[in-house]
Amino acid sequence: MVKGLRAQGMRAFEIVEATGISRGRVDKWLRLKECPPQGKMAPRPGMPGYFREDLRRLWDQGRQNGKELLEEIRKLGYRGSYSGLCTLLAPWREEQRAAAKAVSASSGRSAEPTEPTAAPVSPMRHVSPQEASAALSKPKPMLSQRQRKIVDYLKRIEDFASMRHLVLSFRSILCNGKVSSMKRWIEQGEATGIAAIRTFVRKLKKDREAVENAVEYAWSNGPVEGHINRLKTLKRQMYGRAHVELLRARVLPISVRAQLHQH
Q1: Between 20 and 30 A from 55 (CA), which of 84, 104, 232, 249?
Q2: Do 150 and 131 contact (CB within 8 A), yes or no?
Q3: Left if phi > 0, otherwise alpha if psi is -120 to 50, otherwise beta: which for 222?
């Protein structure tokens, strides 16, 4: 990415501002002709690389379903995650797709150019979970310029686009929706394959009556919660230094205090 930005005419300090990479590292990478190799940890039994030979043997036999391969190496002692296994299998799948394209091109069924034009490099820093969550739940007019870039970047992931649609639909239902719309949303959430949405729906159904009342009625316990929070704040400010009389004087309106003094 650093080399691509330099090829577009950006100077070193501009690359630093665009990517967030340190100046020393940018200067080092601009001097290098090739990306320096990263040190790799020796595979352990909890890592998919430890079972690479077994996986390759199964792969060459035509058993290329990720779930089936996960079951096989779990029998051999693998205790890692499915995503870790997918990371190891990804280059093999790329090789398979490249070979299929080469066969298709040689048979004349493909008209792809042999030297595709390189797309311009667009720098994108690491997206934190907090940034992704904020971009997930905001309508497009409320997004900042950076958040719009994040949304466009994450929409390449199919699950993110579906999740964003469901989250914004839920927000719209809470603001000006109907109970019938909430019921349809719950059905859609249960039908999706996104684990986070299904977990949210399961917890929502435990308190479904309260959520439906929030949709149907304009009343809210927000003001009550606000007064409770204010009361606790005042109490903690005076902890160990004053009695309940001062707390009452700070909490109650002046008119009520005057009536209490009269009584």
Answers
A1: 104
A2: yes
A3: alpha
Percent above pLDDT 90 for the chain? 0
CA distance 51 to 85: 10
Span 25-58, pLDDT tens digits: 888 888 888 776 666 666 666 788 888 888 888 9
- What single letter denotes the amino acid at residue 150? I
> Which pLDDT tens digit goes with each residue over 243-262?
777 877 777 776 655 665 66
Largest separation between any pair of C-alpha atoms in the chain: 100
Residue at token pair 């479904």: 208
Q: What's the pTM value of the predicted model, to 2 decimals?
A: 0.41
d(CA 66, CA 87): 11
Q: Work out the average pLDDT over 13-20.
A: 84
**Where does the pLDDT of residue 111 fall: very low under 50, low under 70, confident under 90, or very high at 90 and above?**
very low
| Per-domain boundaries in the chain | 2-31, 129-216, 223-262
DSSP code per residue over the chain: -HHHHHHTT--HHHHHHHH---HHHHHHHHH-SSPPPPP-PPP-TTSGGGGHHHHHHHHHTT---HHHHHHHHHHTT--S-HHHHHHHHHHHHHHHHHHHHHHHHHTT-----SSPPPPPP---PPPPHHHHHHHHHS-GGG--HHHHHHHHHHTTSHHHHHHHHHHHHHHHHHHH--HHHHHHHHHHHHHS--HHHHHHHHHHHHTHHHHHHHHH-S--SHHHHHHHHHHHHHHHHTTTT--HHHHHHHHS-HHHHHHHHH-
- Here the tokens at position 224 are 């009550």
**Owner of token pair 């005419």:** 9
- Report pLDDT digits (tens) over 143-166: 888 888 888 888 877 788 888 888
